[in-house]
Design a protein that fits this description.
Number of helices: 22
Number of domains: 5
Shape: globular
CATH superfamily of the largest domain: GAF domain
Distance between the termini: 19 Å
CATH topology of the largest domain: Beta-Lactamase
Strand order of the largest sheet: 1-6-7-8-4-5
Strand content: 5-15%
Largest sheet: 6 strands, mixed
Radius of gyration: 30 Å
CATH architecture of the largest domain: 2-Layer Sandwich
CATH class of the largest domain: Alpha Beta
Mean pLDDT: 74
Length: about 675
């Protein structure tokens, strides 16, 4: 069995037991590989390939015949065969039933083609096949040849069954499929290895790079696994460099359309590259030394793209035209457009931009009926014709919409549109209509008290805090019986307080009472009986980590109102991603502290960028639990990167380690 998932996925490794050496111990094959500077060791205990392959072939034949399978067949292999059968893929398929037209030129293909063209001469084109697929596993580019793969135009499991590209797309790491692990007859003599290509900004899988060859005589890893991973890394590097160029083209198109009197500002969706420690960490995670050598100049272009950002942040002067340039990640909006762009209009424009980037063409903007404006949309293209976004000129319908300098903000206690949050709020609204007590539970800082104030009426509710008066002997006597009562921190109630609360419920059964309770601390028997009594009318609020999609709605509600003439607090897309990835142990309360601290203490203009966030939020969570030593080491490396302006070479030199070691350690913290 393969130890350590960093070395990739190979289902064949798990079939059969270990081969015993002459001394009776297990014989292991160490495998060292490097991608992004990662040095991983895979320890395996396989049976000889000559024995394993006929056994797996026999298992596949019995599966196709509907006979019971022999013992020891890996469950993952059987599950893959069953999926193919469920999808109706015939094992003797010659070509996919639905052969789609090859997708048009895309950003992925444009970035990958020059990289892969440089790799082809080293491929051994008469023995191997190199393929690039998109996120739908449609084949975008091929070179070389391998029997059985020449005519493939799609590698989706629904069309061709189990294969390495589909496995890499699903697992987000290198994957190998060999011979009889495939479902199709035509691939029984094929070994393939695939590596995912991750987006430089989103981290989403954009496609895969696959190297296929005749069935390997030796066991995993595939002899060209390092080539597949280096190719994927080089494509990611080129994508990163081109992203900076695309942003400059979008900015130029915006400025041409807005005109000299209509310069605009970059809004909260903009993310014009990264700098400092943030850029270094993300770059270190994605770009391997091999990839830098495979795509010479790409990293330098990426750094140049990162440096060429300050000019994009311009404060508007004068009215100008109502112009918005969007590409699904960045937004450039003039002051005139700020008055017309509602969230629904902006969402419609970004939908058009995303569709255009995917090659679906630029259609109608499809603005909502109550938009109050029309939009004339024009695609923005690179020199090679690739669409990277759109520029929209907005025109008001009828009388111009009045400018609202300080639009009303929704209360924090009700802000959020995620399913868990709306379900909890809806249930609470339903229960609070009746005069019986209501119990709100949830982790610390989830917004129980804020929601309680909104439910009972913030103007009339009387708040009692058990954390300050555990016996309720000071606050309850001052309570006015005709006012709703909000009791906070019920977990802090002492026994006299519980008795006083029970007495209140007996004497005033129709009191509008809402109680908040944070689980986690031991409670006495009296309080436990009270909680049990209220359990039928209780609502549990979800923690912020379970409704991260609400963070973007919470930010403007939590930010203090700006001073007269000052713009509201906005955020780059990279900063928003960091906020959404953080676990928020303090939930909404912790988020509110971060937002208010930034609003009160930051001394720079423009959107909040990731380097401005607190260390814990900026660095993001580790993908696995770290030991105390690893925590200290990680903090030291990140501090060195910040101290040297994100320069990885200088940071490594200051730490006394090689740059490859720095890459490896950073990748190791990600699991």
């Amino acid at each position: 069995m393969t130890v350590g998932h960093a070395a990739g996925v190979s289902l064949r490794d798990t079939f059969h037991g270990s081969r015993r050496s002459a001394s009776g111990g297990s014989s292991c094959w160490p495998f060292n590989r490097t991608r992004y500077g990662v040095h991983a060791v895979t320890t395996t205990e396989p049976s000889p390939a000559a024995t394993a392959r006929p056994s797996l072939r026999l298992a596949r034949e019995r599966f196709l015949a509907g006979c019971p399978l022999p013992g020891g067949v890996p469950e993952e292999v059987v599950a893959a065969w069953r999926r193919a059968r469920f999808f109706g893929v015939p094992h003797d398929l010659k070509e996919p039933a639905a052969a789609p037209v090859r997708p048009p030129e895309s950003a992925l293909l444009g970035a990958a083609r020059p990289v892969l063209d440089r790799i082809v001469p080293a491929l051994g084109a008469d023995r191997s096949l190199l393929l690039l697929t998109d996120e739908r596993l449609r084949v975008l580019w091929t070179a070389g040849s391998t029997p059985g793969l020449d005519a493939c135009s799609v590698l989706a499991e629904q069309e061709v069954g189990h294969n390495s590209a589909a496995l890499a797309l699903r697992t987000r790491r290198r994957a190998e499929v060999h011979g009889p692990e495939h479902f199709l007859d035509r691939w029984q003599e094929v070994s393939a290895v695939s590596a995912p290509v991750l987006g430089p900004e989103s981290g989403q899988v954009l496609g895969t790079v696959t190297v296929a060859s005749r069935l390997c005589a030796e066991r995993a890893p595939h002899p060209q696994a390092a080539l597949a991973e280096a190719a994927a890394a080089a494509v990611e590097t080129e994508l990163r460099a081109r992203a900076g160029r695309a942003e400059r083209v979008l900015l130029d198109a915006y400025l041409r359309t807005a005109g000299p009197d209509g310069t605009g500002r970059e809004t909260d969706g903009a993310d014009r590259g990264t700098s400092g420690a943030d850029g270094a960490v993300r770059g270190a995670e994605r770009v391997a030394p091999e990839a830098e050598r495979a795509a010479p100049g790409a990293e330098g272009a990426a750094r140049a793209a990162e440096r060429a950002t300050p000019g994009a942040e311009r404060v508007a002067r004068g009215a100008g035209r109502a112009v918005a340039a969007v590409d699904g990640r960045n937004r450039l909006v003039s002051d005139g457009a700020q008055r017309l762009l509602t969230p629904k209009v902006l969402e419609a424009l970004e939908r058009v931009a995303v569709n255009a980037r995917r090659g679906d063409g630029v259609g109608e903007a499809g603005l909502p009926e109550d938009a109050g404006c029309t939009a004339q949309v024009t695609p923005v293209r690179l020199d090679d014709g690739t669409v990277i976004g759109v520029v929209a000129v907005l025109e008001p319908l009828g009388d111009p919409m009045p400018s609202a300098s300080a639009p009303p903000r929704p209360p924090v206690g009700l802000t959020g549109s995620s399913v868990p949050w709306r379900h909890a709020v809806g249930r609470a609204v339903e229960l609070v209509r009746s005069p019986e007590p209501l119990l709100l539970t949830g982790e610390r800082g989830t917004g129980k008290s804020a929601l309680g104030r909104e439910l009972l009426g913030a103007e009339t509710v009387q708040v009692v805090d058990a954390a300050q008066d555990a016996g309720l002997d000071r606050t309850l006597p001052a309570w006015l019986a005709d006012r709703p009562l909000l009791l906070r921190h019920a977990e802090r109630l002492a026994q006299p307080g519980v008795a006083a609360l029970n007495s209140l419920l007996d004497t005033h059964p129709d009191t509008r009472l809402l109680i908040t309770y944070t689980p986690g601390t031991p409670v006495g028997p009296c309080l436990q009986r009270l909680l049990d009594k209220l359990s039928a009318r209780s609502v549990t609020l979800p923690p912020l980590r379970e409704r991260t999609e609400d963070i973007r709605e919470l930010l403007p509600a939590l930010a203090p109102r700006p001073a007269l003439g000052q713009p509201p607090l906005t955020w780059t897309l990279d900063a928003l991603r960091a906020l959404e990835l953080y676990a928020w142990p303090g939930n909404v309360t912790e988020l509110a502290h971060v937002v208010r601290a930034l609003a009160e203490h930051r001394r720079v203009s423009g959107p909040v960028r990731r380097p401005e966030l607190p260390d814990a939020v900026r660095e993001g969570p580790a993908a696995r639990p770290l030991s105390p030593m690893e925590h200290a080491e990680r903090a030291t490396i990140l501090e060195a990167l910040r101290r040297h302006g994100g320069n990885k070479a200088r940071a490594a030199a200051a730490l006394g380690i090689g740059r490859a070691t720095l890459y490896r350690k950073l990748r190791g913290y990600r699991g």
